Amino acid sequence: MNNETAKEQQQIPTVYDPQAAEQRLYDWWIESQFFKATGEADKQPYSIVIPPPNVTGVLHMGHALDFTLQDVLVRRKRMQGYDALWLPGMDHAGIATQARVEATLRQEGISRFDLGREMFLEKVWEWKEHYASVIRAQWRRMGFSLDYSRERFTMDEGLSRAVRTVFVKLYEKGLIYRGNRIINWDPAARTALSDIEVEYKEVKGALHHMRYPLQDGSGHITVATTRPETMLGDTGIAVHPDDERYKHLVGKTVFLPIIGREIPIFADEYVDMDFGSGAVKVTPAHDPNDFEMGLRHNLEMISVMDESATMNENAGPYQGLDRFECRKQILKDLQEQDVLFKIEEHIHSVGHSERSGAVVEPFLSTQWFVAMKPLADTAIELQKQGDGVRFVPDRFEKIYLHWIENVRDWCISRQLWWGHRIPAWYCDECNETIVSMEKPASCPKCGHAHLRQDEDVLDTWFSSGLWPFSTMGWPDETDDLKRYYPTDVLVTGYDIIYFWVARMIFTGLEFTGEKPFRDVLIHGLIRDSQGRKMSKSLGNGVDPLEVIEQYGADALRFMLMTASSPGNDLRFYWEKVESARNFANKIWNASRFVMMNLGDFRYEDIDLHGELGTADKWILHRLNETAAGVNAALERYDFGEAGRQLYEFIWSEYCDWYIELAKLYLQGEDAAAKRTTQSVLVYVLDQSLRLLHPFMPFITEEIWQHIPHQGQTITLAAYPEHQQRFVDEQAAREMELLMDMIRSVRNIRAEMNVPQSRPVAMIVKPANSETEALIRRGKAYIRRFCNPDSLTIDQTAVTPEKSVTAVVTGTELFLPLAGMIDVDAEIARLEKEWKHLDAEVERVEKKLSNQGFLAKAPADVVEAERTKGLDYAEKREKVQARLEELRR
RNA sequence: GCGGCUAUAGCUCAGAGGGAGAGCACCACCUUGACACGGUGGGGGCCAUAGGUUCGAUUCCUAUUAGCCGCACCA
Questions:
Q1: Is residue A6 pLDDT above 70, yes or no?
Q2: Which terminus of chain A, N or C, has less C-beta within 10 A?
Q3: Which of residues 47-86 of A touch strand B (CB under 7 A)?
Q4: Would the pLDDT of A829 be above 90?
Q5: Beta carbon of A756 within 7 Å of strand B?
Q6: Do A705 and A809 fall within a single domain?
Q7: Model confidence over A653-675: pLDDT tens digits?
Q8: Over 90: is that where the pLDDT of A258 sits?
């Protein structure tokens, strides 16, 4: 571009077209391997592993947010010279993916059982390959700087070996066991779930009061239940040991209606005397609390349902009915038998499967569990010592701790086909259980070779929990593991702190001896414009690709980064994307301007050591402050603040002021001044693009390639930092005053209906020589913006008769607008100004007359108030004087 | 029941112990040689309520109200 003519440059369209640039640039980045972590010894490593998206389908807005945050972090670090690794990958998402594949099969009228395990898995792998490529295409469209050479999948050979290793080691340590217990059962997916895969919802139900007859015929005992169908599995009645009403009944038995089973009445502390009748029917096979009581009192455990929650042979006459059908029927029957005598409305919370939505059935079955206590204790201890993972915002640490301190054993087996098969084998001969990395040749106990592998697979989160190190090659001591583990930060939503973050921490500690990441950055969820969660069922989700097609990836990214504040949810508004797109377009046009005015100017020509004008010094000073501010904000993960500072600087300072002022010299005769201006224009643009690059990677690269620059790509250009040499408070103050004056004149012109195109005489009356000198230095700027036909700068200037006045710090301005002004309007304008100034003066005076303030406030604050007070008072006096003149 | 978050302009949201901000929307003017996806100017808020700390609170603390979220219990 350097040697293209201005004419050619002018042919750049005035509207930036993201579609054209984005795909081309991304392909080039990838081809050039800019995002491949190099392992260079002289660079400090910086690593992030992506939270692996599920291969269930396409990425949604939440992914776009999560991944963009990471890309901003990793791109900045890469520019800062780190050996940055952002490791991509995907999660097999057991239940979710299997459910999706089964649903598509069902449309063809096939079930997974028709296909058989092996063929079904082939289908799932096909599905996985398809969606993996869809997801990769989405990553590309978003512009993510991922190192694809290290992409992983949770069911890769390597990661599967990590899973088996962890399982075997925990088993050998006694931290994985198999047991027959009450678990959460999803009757739709027909699998066990962990505690956190159950969502509790308030549901309007009913409390059914029933009378069970005493075996000795001496009456009956009343119990209440919300789930009458479970009474078929009742094996006891519990009362509180201190309950006077029932003390005499403890030890007696009752006949269970319908079934006729004789069941004992016993005492247990668990019972709440104040709830219901104070007597509880106990169904150990269908309620976790009842199960515990069952263990304590040696009760029989009778399951009355099968795996699809259909009543089984233990349900007597109800066998074959669905559990809810059975409820209806049994209520009718119990009512007829006068067992059921009262139904009360009752609101209670009912567990639903997070995946299928089915009402979860507490179900007695044999499953594999992780004993959590020892693992949790290590993690808790570390966190409490202050050596734990740093949560950002820190309030999420409490949430994490609360969960892990109360965690129960983790049910890890799933009755699915898609997932890591449990590495346990059972001997057909002696029933021995063998847990090992590979299938054993024979039973170590009896020597027989008839071994069956456990049919079940592991909870998806079991493998996800190993992600930060399994992706690096663990259990092998690979170079990557040594160099990039532990990772620097994990970025994820608050909705999976328990599912994932906590599990990575304790498995990381257990197996690598280190916390898997230094920081955890927690962000909120994306909602629609009405604040509702985006969901498929509501149909209110917005597809990131749709946004990209309309506004470009940069606009979407910038919107996501600036519309959020740490840890809080954010609402999606098209208007916000549009505003970000407009920002991109603004930069595009500013860059067009710069390019059109460069002529043969080259990067080597940048010279910031020549004679700089006030505006030059000011914009460099402000750029410098912006670089410092952006870096500081990003260091504390405050993306919104960083983005806002860039927006403000680029638009309101560089474009609105500096470019306008630059025109003065670009179009002027002074060749040296022109060179300086070109230097500053290019330098500030270059630096601004670099600062913005992590947020808007495409447009910044596209422009950067077209302006004079050094280096191959902006993705590897040094990230700007604060430089002492650009600090210039004096220039900043001067520029502020000049801008103030210019704004005042604009204000007057607008209020007096004097268009900018109409030249007016201008008299400036500085209060002292210092201000006069300053204004004289800025004379050209005033001419540029105020369009005066004459400009008088004079400390002794006399106020012209018919004129409009503005008062800024240290200076008065008069515009003699004879014949154009309405005196009454001017009086009204000044009165308003006076009122405002007077209020300020009063506020400051009140403060300064407060002895407490003078005595206790810091000296610089008092001094600042004094200065302000004097300034306001001076302005007020001048406005006052002017008003008196006008009123005469 | 326990814990957390939120309450600032019409809307969505920043903000900071000492002069209330942005984007969008609104009003007026401007087709000025980068940009109408633009420019200039403007209107609009007792910063939820009541206390407290402080010389000073919209900002910190407590309570209240409203909304949201998590956890536990729910026979």
A1: no
A2: C
A3: none
A4: no
A5: yes
A6: no
A7: 999 999 999 999 998 889 999 99
A8: no
Instruction: Tally Cβ neighbours within 10 Å of residue A269.
Output: 11
Residues A693 and A623 in one domain: yes
How far, in Å, are A328, A466, A621, A687, A861 from residue A722 at the CA level? Answer: 73, 39, 10, 11, 27
User: Is A844 within a domain?
Assistant: yes
CA A240 to C1' B47, in angstroms, rounded, equals 54
- Domain boundary, last residue among A306, A332, A362: A362
Looking at the structure, tell me whether residues A685 and A623 fall in a common domain.
yes
Q: Are A314 and A325 in contact (CB under 8 A)?
A: no
Instruction: Give CA–CA dist A683/A623, Å, rounded.
Output: 10
Considering the domain architecture, whether residues A722 and A773 belong to the same structural domain is answered as no
Same domain, A661 and A774: no
Q: Which of residues 1-40 of A touch strand B (CB under 7 A)?
A: 14-16
Distance separating alpha carbons of residues A331 and A210, to the nearest angstrom: 10
Q: What is the pLDDT of residue A124?
A: 95
- The band of A610, judged by pLDDT with boundaries at 50, 70 and 90, is confident
Is the per-residue pLDDT at A638 higher than 90? yes
From A679, A703, A727, the end of a domain falls on A727
Mean pLDDT of the residues in chain A: 91
In a domain, A133, yes or no: no
Q: For chain A, what is the domain count?
A: 3
Helix (H) or strand (E) holding A453: strand A451-453
Question: Residue A825: its pLDDT value, please?
Answer: 80
Q: Is residue A505 a part of any domain in this protein?
A: no
Residues A763, A722: one domain?
no
Q: Quote the pTM value.
A: 0.93
Lowest mean pLDDT among A488-492, A537-541, A620-624: A537-541
Whether residues A704 and A615 share a domain: the answer is: yes
- A241: containing domain: 198-362
Q: Where are the alpha helices (DSSP H) in A108-251?
A: 112-115, 117-142, 157-172
Residue A97 inside a domain? The answer is no
What's the average model confidence in pLDDT over A851-878?
Answer: 91
Same domain, A253 and A354: yes
Spatial distance from the CA of A748 to the C1' of B41 (Å): 9
pLDDT tens digits, one per residue of A509-566: 999 999 999 999 999 999 988 888 888 777 888 999 999 999 999 999 999 999 878 8
DSSP bridge partners of A381 = none
A554-CA/B37-C1' distance, Å: 14
Place of tokens 């690269």: A701
* Residue in the structure block whose two tokens are 């599967």: A160
Distance CA A788, CA A782 (A): 8
